[in-house]
Amino acid sequence: MSTPAVAPPAGEGLSEGARVVNTFIAPSKTFTDINRSARWWLPFVIMAIFSYAFVFTVDKKVGFDKVNENAIRLNERASERLDQLSPEQREQQVEIGVKITRYIAFSVPAISLVFLLLSSLILWGSYSFGAGAQVSFGKSMAVVTYSNLVGIFKPVLAIIALMAGADSDTFNMQNPAATNLAVLVDQTQHKVLYSLCSQLDIITIWTLCLVALGFTYICKVKKGTSFAIVFGWWIVTVLVAVGASAAF
Question: I need a surface site. Which of 3, 30, 149, 167 has the fewest CB within 10 A?
Fold first, then answer.
């Protein structure tokens, strides 16, 4: 009697670690595997770890007092409001500002999770109803989360710069790494241009390309369509950010 062939176990695919590594070196493998499993918890945990490493480094090397002081200096209206207060009121407002800055810094993972959920929801709707693709929200969340994993390069670069002795007087918590064109612009003199240039970020562009590529693998849309959807939404966010900078 012949021995029957043994079928491979169902559900085999990449390990979570392999998916993380392939996001950087072979993203098509990661996105293809998302069709098998839409888990996204590991890249989020990794991003949270790097986020906290950055916050702790800022606290040690710069201090949130200095972070808040730099933010006030770069905000002409805030600086003018403080100048109109008495010394006691000014000190009280500065203390409140430092506390708020610290709370926001340590809340970044939670804020990032909300951002990932909203981005995934918008893109899920855009592909499902705009492009007529069949894609689940879970897969959308997985693509967006894995794509944003490359964003860990920003805190890594910022940590290296701070450990190497970067000037705390020029440190900007909102744009801590020189990965965009804003490093060429004086924020105090050209706020709108600075806002625009800060959006032209190499890590952001990399992330957007990964998102567009990821959706081509999970819902079989054309690459041109996918890139148009992703970069179209990015242009909208850039216009909103620049408009807000001009208004406020």
Answer: 3
